[in-house]
Design goal:
Two copies of one chain form a homodimer.
Chain A (H helix, E strand, L loop, with lengths): L1 E3 L2 H13 L4 E6 L5 H13 L2 E6 L19 H10 L4 E3 L3 H4 L6 E5 L1 H4 L2 H4 L3 H16 L3 E5 L3 H13 L5 E5 L19 H22 L5 H14 L4 E9 L12 E10 L2 E10 L5
Helix pairs in contact in A: 7-8, 9-10
Chain lengths: 285, 285
Amino acid sequence: MRVLRSPAAVQRWATHQRESGHTIGLVPTMGALHEGHLSLVRAARHACNQVVATIFVNPTQFGPTEDFARYPRTTRRALALLRHEECDVVFMPAGDQMYPAGFQTYVVTGDLATDLEGRDRPTHFRGVTTICLKLFTICKPHRAYFGQKDYQQALVVRRMVADLNLDLVVKICPTVRESDGLAASSRNRHLGPADRERALAISRVLFEQARALRNGLYTARAAERRGRQALSKAAGLRLDYFSVRQAHSLARPGPSDRDLVLLAAARVGRTRLIDNVRVRLNSGR
Amino acid sequence: MRVLRSPAAVQRWATHQRESGHTIGLVPTMGALHEGHLSLVRAARHACNQVVATIFVNPTQFGPTEDFARYPRTTRRALALLRHEECDVVFMPAGDQMYPAGFQTYVVTGDLATDLEGRDRPTHFRGVTTICLKLFTICKPHRAYFGQKDYQQALVVRRMVADLNLDLVVKICPTVRESDGLAASSRNRHLGPADRERALAISRVLFEQARALRNGLYTARAAERRGRQALSKAAGLRLDYFSVRQAHSLARPGPSDRDLVLLAAARVGRTRLIDNVRVRLNSGR
């Protein structure tokens, strides 16, 4: 496994791979790897000749009051895990290589990026789309792998890829969960035992409401109201949002929409967690 | 010469050229070709195995009160000229192929894009950078050719290419002038004989002040003041700006700056014209 630090070196490597007819799979990470990331690497390994993972804690996707400084940096462990998954290349740039002096170009997405996470974190998705575009132009992947856990992020990146005619496929892989149902996240390591217990309410309520929707017990709007009520009352948890949306546009669903996603964000102590569950309703109802 | 209308077809062509080891040169145009464009095609033809020109009147770079509807559309003539210059491929998409329903992703550049042209035309460069990025990802050029006449545009595109790690070189070719000094522009065809005579003041004053600067007659600030005065008094001409800037950053120059550009924009009747002249001062003064 090669560890490269310069964008130009990775670009040369990627150009060479493409000229040799190889398929490149990209797994972008911020380094604090968990089972979710490793499942993406395995999916890339399965489908592509060459797998490149990136480790970069991207400052532009953190807001001024967010946890950039506190974000876990565990590079040595990440490299060992990526080597174990048989990554070919790890791209690990320094901050000033990605954002040199004079940097001033951003990729911005509209409606998809301004609601939900975008409402709570107004510059977040601008940072995500900008770093993803940069990683795409540097690593030249045929396929890029994202986890469903960051569902809105995956949709925003897909939208960017379509709108800017980027020649790659965005693969969205299932959320990996710990045995108690908590979605795998780098931020879980900040949770002490009591907070972790409290955090379980998020996935529990998402699954409850998803099940009720699937069973036709009530409408999207009612599921949203009930989920919101349940999480607002949950002890030690501050709800940011609980919402039921159309799965592809994140628009509010009408009575005939069948492909839905339930999304939630909440704070437990100083740690902000997000999760979501997809629901496809039978069209026969 | 092949004329392709679908982004996917051009992308397949470009991928194939790259895999075959060919060098792709791109000349983006809005179709109303003049000698300036043809000089870009010749430069590309000289340096690259494969030349692709694009013809697309890009709606997103026109403001709501600007001349999008009035912009000259002379496709048959443009194709004949490109064939004559031995272009390999012309990419000529329809508007809804470039901006399909739901399109919402833009590339935005900071300081470089907000001054001068950006002050008069606040969404102009967002449209330019977005369409250029799309044309770059579709046509996959090794080199893209722009005219110095649109000097700020060329700098903004170069900045985008650097900031987003795009794997291509932006070539800026000299402004082509008509025999009377007027910079070649698609908009010149809107000028009647009287307006055309009036328009000549723009290049004349730019060259006068450039010469005075080169001869050390006065400072950048004085040249700017004199040029502005001369064009403000010119008959039948409404000055938008006349400015002397650092050539690479477009920042206002200090006394030690040697690499300068004089830029002007003015309206003659309903037609808005821009022009610029680079000046490199001797460092011995």
